Amino acid sequence: MRDPCEYVRLSGDCEYQRFDYLAFHYCTVRDWQDKSSFLALFPVSAILLGGWLLLLFALVGATADAFFAPAVAAIADRLQLSPDVAGCTLLAFGNGACDFFTQLAAIASTAEVRARCLGSLS
Fold first, then answer.
1. CA distances from 69 to 40, 51, 55, 86 (A)
2. Alpha helices by DSSP H, 1-122
3. Do 72 and 86 form a contact (C-beta atoms < 8 A)?
4. Please, are residues 40 and 33 in contact by the beta-carbon 8 Å criterion?
């Protein structure tokens, strides 16, 4: 199979995404013009998706500054922890919390999802 769009459409690896970035990159952008000019639009797609990625990182950083860092500072003050210890422990707990709760949800799910998620722990 030489057509990347066909491969992306037939592959079931990324079927639960809200927005299919690979289909956008390999199919939608290619359909804007004829198939022979896909390489000319490849940088346009890469710039659009790269800009979107930078925007998402900026939003995550702003959200962490506004909500996560003040909460960690309040917990550190309450527990009388130094800023260094709070940064090493509480931020690490906060960073790993999403993985922990994802694993809990996987354990409560079907056997196939449980096996796939628990296998990703290693």
1. 43, 26, 20, 10
2. 4-10, 21-23, 29-32, 38-63, 69-78, 83-107, 111-119
3. yes
4. yes
Give the orientation angle of helix 111-119 with respect to helix 83-107, to 10 degrees.
150
Residue in this structure with the two tokens 């906060």, named with its chain if needed: 94
**Same-domain pairing of 33 and 57:** yes
CA distance 96 to 4: 35
Cut 0.85: pTM above it: no
106 in the same domain as 53:
no
Together in a domain, 11 and 47: yes
Q: Are 69 and 93 in the same domain?
A: no
46-66 residue pLDDT tens: 888 899 999 999 999 999 889
DSSP state of 96: H
